[in-house]
Amino acid sequence: MEPPSSLRVDKWLWAARFFKTRSLAAAACAGGKVDVNDDAAKPARLVRPGDVIKVTLPQGRRRVARVLVLDDRRGSGEAARRLYEDLTPPEPPRIRQARPPLRPPGAGRPTKRERRDIDQLRGR
Fold it and tell me: Contact 56/35 with Cβ under 8 angstroms?
């Protein structure tokens, strides 16, 4: 059987494993979270190979993909990765938090760890 020349965007997003269910994919499309070629896409919008899809996922991440192959069946993760080319820019590096300054022993109230050590010494 020959692959279709166009496919509904919600069906393709589900088959490409961007969403766990097709209804979640349709809800994202209806909620304005999916753009096809920089235009808002309703669930019934047809996609073709070469189209660029931008998806805002529930975690707040934004993914960009170029459609390579159309398939209306959901397969393995490996098969799903063959359906598109990932154009998502890399995430910026996370800023590392500086550790809190060490306080000299005996200064201020004991920490929880120090209290446990004190209690252990006292035999409680």
Answer: no
